[in-house]
Amino acid sequence: MNMPVDVLVIGGGPAGIAAAIKARENGVENILIVERSEELGGLLYQCIHNGFGLQYFKEDLTGPEYRYRFIQKLKKLKINYLLKTMVLDITHDRQTLLMNDTEGVIRLNPKAIVLAMGCRERTRYNIFVPGTRPAGIFTAGTAQRLINVEGYIPGNRVVILGSGDIGMIMARRLILEGAKVEAVVEILPYIGGLIRNEVQCLRDFDIPFFLGYTTTEIYGLRKVEGVTISKIGGDSSNESIKDIKCNTVLLSVGLIPENELSLNAGIKLDSVTHGPVVDENMQTNIPGIFAGGNVVHVLDLVDNVSREGEIAGLNAAKYVLGEISSPVRNIKIKAGDGIRYVVPSYISGKKKVNLYMRVSEPREDATIKVVDDTKQDCLYERRLAVTRPSEMIKITLLKGRMDSLDKECGSLTVSCVGGNDNGKS
Amino acid sequence: MIPWKGRLGKMSTRQSADVTIIGAGIQGASIARRLSQYHLRVVLIDKNSEVGFGTSKASTANVQVGIGFKGALRQRLMVSGTKMFDKLVEEINVPMMRMGRLWIARNESEVEILHNLKSVGEKNGVEGMELIDGEELRKREPNISNGFIAALHTHRTGVIAIYELIPALVENAQHNGVELLLDTEVKNIYQEKKRMVVEHDKGEINSRFIINAAGIGAAKIARMIDEDTLDPQPNREIVLVTDKRLKGILNHSIVHVGKGNAYLNPRCAGNLTLGMAGMDVNSGDDIDVPGERIQAILQAVKVVMPVISSGDIIRYFAGVVARPPTEGRDYIIEPSKRVNSLINVRVGYAGITCSQAIAELVVQILAKQGLNLIKNPRFDPYRKAIPKVSELSDEEKKKLITKDKRYGHIVCRCEHISEGEIVEAIKRGARTIDGIKNRTRAGMGRCQGGFCTPRILQILSRELHLPVTSIKANNDGSEVVLSRTKELLTEEGGF
Fold first, then answer.
1. Which pLDDT score is estimated for A403?
2. Is the domain B101-155+233-320 a CATH 3.30.9.10 member?
3. In Å, how far are B241, B309, B465 from B83, measured between CA atoms?
4. Is the dihedral of CA B314, A247, B58, B87 positive or negative?
5. What is the separation, in whole angstroms, between the first and last Cα of chain A?
6. Does the CB of A230 have a partner CB in chain B at under 8 Å?
7. Beta bridge partners of A137
């Protein structure tokens, strides 16, 4: 295979597809999406529940429906893609090594790359759950694939560790399949996923959940036999220490952007998001390499993943067409009090920009502020009734607001202050 | 020799052999391969579903030099055993590296330990030992913290790909005629008309000799003949495994000498294994990993190498080492006191290092007991490894994929393991998720099988013609999934 590629998109999930479509719509002819699994659309394929597209399409779609719309568009635009193809390496000058079962190995030298590899699930080992290593322990997404794609039930008595969205959705799914969900156990004093999943999955199905409990042991020799959980700061009473019998444990304890390829290419990662440090164009520190979606930071909704992929795709196109060049480094965006992180990390101050962020803890009536660190001017302020770490906050900085900024080495700090922390419960 | 046909295959209720080896761990596998050089009928049996599923798999996989452990027999076997590995890995094509070890000390009493180690080594004839100061230590290992003032460098310490080693030894033994019986648990052994009978859960084997290499279960087997056999004193060893991205931060194996201190070992595949000496003495056979132990190891590791953090850990496991109940935990490799046709092989730490020398010793014992050893002229010592796509050049990859396109389809994303490698592992005897993992590394990466497990289930099911619901993680009772969807909603299913 010998094809000229202008924009190479790594990953055919929602971010990658959106990036490719946007690049084509902005005038790039030679685009190639490389996807390692058997189908396009990433994990949307196995997300058979609804709640997708409320923002992007203003409709309530299932994962496969959302995926179908994007794939139709991709096919209409005749964008090339390779399935079951693995990217083995990217170098700092964008040389890319691919492998699949039809072409063998392929070396490409694209003008621009969009990284859209998504994220992977954290395992029990990432959070140091003690105990034995029997069969019957899965990440929630693996269980989701087994049930919704392969058609197998992992077990009939299930404990879910962590209260991420996939975990809560799988709790409901397992109940609908006739399994018993013994408990959802969350170490934090509040649910980790979206409110709508807490209501529609846990509360509506009367699933017991324990907040502020840590898992002190998984036991069982060949197959899981149970878990022991303990209340954080609790005593040795029955209320504090609970033994829950089960034959299956699902973990829903967060996601990590998948950036092993990025590291090989010399891309700088952020220590909080574990994704590439990007500017307002979603360009990484390496010119011509862009990134979007969960590979940059784990987003709450697929709608936001698509939007971010579009920004990356648009700017990859502009890079190929010579409209933008090196990464923007004019103004640094810093996460201040109450904010865990902000994406992007750098802006030019010369155009309207959206900032995506997550707060550190739940609050009510808190205020999001953006302050110019040099002059201590407040550029932006907004009161929010409820803020939760599970839900991303998007704010838009208009160009007019940034006129007074130092465009050479300025910095802005975003913070979330005031209000109270009643939102925890 | 009839290859084993699986759990459903018919077995003769009574078969005969010259030698029955109980336990397909590193010792049993090595002895089986060694005996396959002779005209002998050898049967290797194990209660687990695959070879190397006992103590051997939960090991740091070092090939030691002759120091660090007590016992005259063990030290002698270490010194001779370690030298036998270079030829072995050439023959059976298993990765090994001799990266050397730095035994490090940060105070006078620890330096004293270094001197003792060196004098033991000199007495045992260990070559390639060198005492160095802190400055030289940091030249050789720049990431070691400044507090360390001296080190003993043993240049020949190595590490071997233990997960590949045991299947490779057994494969080669089978190739040379050894019969392997898995999922076969010994119920009793006894002597009958100068023959030894092994009663197991599927029948019995009548042979001239029994080699008891049952690891943690060896005392139980030995007691079937000699009631006075003492139990082992098991140690639980907890090992943390790091992400491969740390490759290169450490060039040697590191042992911070003294109790409660850390050891750090590079693995052939690029991960590090981290542990702590003397942590769980006499812990019984519990393989639970307590949270405080993980933290204790991480703290001890940070003393040596502050750059390693908890975020680098991708897995941890516990293994149990069956230390013999002897002075200095020295090995017992001798005929039973009651019946000399039962040869007990009871070992502990450094078992991998000694394994090839132990196999040699067992052959000598058998000869002394009257077993007629006639060389098999057709013995073939060579075994080819499963191709590793990720390690091949572009040209080699292309060639392999042209021959079998399944080598171009990556199933395990983290370790870049192809479908071709998995299918080949099944052809060579893998029948469980862990069996695939041990032979190919699929599922050993940072996502710990989250992505590839459903795919590997399908491949195992397809290749073995078994339903997915009967595919096991490792042994019986560890089936990965319970049922098809909707089955719990029928009357019999669910609650």
1. 85
2. yes
3. 27, 35, 43
4. negative
5. 57
6. no
7. A249
Helices (H), A148-264: 165-176, 195-197, 260-264
Q: Which of B400, B451, B489 best probes binding to A when mutated, by most A CB atoms within 10 angstroms?
A: B451
Residue indicated by tokens 């490698």 = B421
Percent of chain B with pLDDT over 70: 95
> What are the φ/ψ torsions at residue B194 (nearest 5 degrees)?
65, 10
The answer to whether residue A123 neighbours chain B at the CB level (below 8 Å) is yes
Residue B165 makes CB contacts below 8 A (sequence gap 6+) with B26, B52, B92, B94, B352
The CATH code for residues A331-424 is 2.60.40
- Minimum distance, in Å, between the CA of residue A198 and any CA atom of chain B: 24
Q: Where are the beta strands (DSSP E) in B40-115?
A: 42-45, 62-63, 96-97, 101-105
Residues in chain A closer than 8 A to B457 (CB atoms): 150, 152
**Partner A contacted by B290 (CB < 8 A):** yes
The ipTM estimated for the assembled molecules is 0.95
Asked if A7-120+255-320 and A331-424 have one fold, the answer is no
Beta partners for B313?
B242
Domain chopping of chain B, boundaries: 14-57+162-232+327-368, 101-155+233-320, 389-470
Which chain B residue lies closest to A151 (C-alpha atoms)? B485
Alpha-carbon distance A134 to nearest alpha carbon in chain B (angstroms):
7
How many other C-beta atoms lie within 10 A of the C-beta of residue B147? 12
Backbone phi, psi, residue B140, to 5°? -80, -30
Q: Which residue of B has its CA nearest to A145?
A: B454
The answer to whether residue A237 neighbours chain B at the CB level (below 8 Å) is: no
CATH, range B14-57+162-232+327-368:
3.50.50.60
User: Between chains, do A142 and B451 touch, taking CB under 8 Å as contact?
Assistant: yes
Rounded-to-integer distance, Cα A404 and Cα A87, Å: 44
- pTM above threshold 0.90: yes
Do A100 and B408 count as a contact with CB atoms less than 8 A apart? Answer: yes
Please give the distance of CA A68 from its chain centroid, rounded to a whole number. 20
Say how far apart CA B326 and CA B333 lie, in whole Å: 12
Residue pair B376/B38 in contact by the 8 Å Cβ criterion: yes
Pairing of the two strands B150-154 and A410-417: unpaired
DSSP B434-472: HHHHHHH-TT-STTTTTTTHHHHHHHHHHHHT--GGG-B
CATH number for the domain formed by residue range(s) A137-251: 3.50.50.60
Confidence band for B72, pLDDT divided at 50, 70 and 90: very high
CA distance B229 to B336: 9
Buried b (16+ CB within 10 A) or exposed e, B426-436: bebbbbbbbbb
Question: Residue B398 — very low, low, confident or very high, per pLDDT cuts 50/70/90?
Answer: very high
B480: chain A residues, CB-CB within 8 Å:
135-136, 154
Q: What is the mean pLDDT of residues A216-244?
A: 93
How far apart CA B97 and CA A168 sit, in angstroms, is 46
Q: Considering Cα of A122, then A125, then A130, then A135, what sign does the dihedral take?
A: positive
Give the tokens for residue A207.
């699933």
Whole-angstrom Cα distance, residue A129 to residue A214? 9
The pLDDT score that the predictor gives to residue B279 is 64
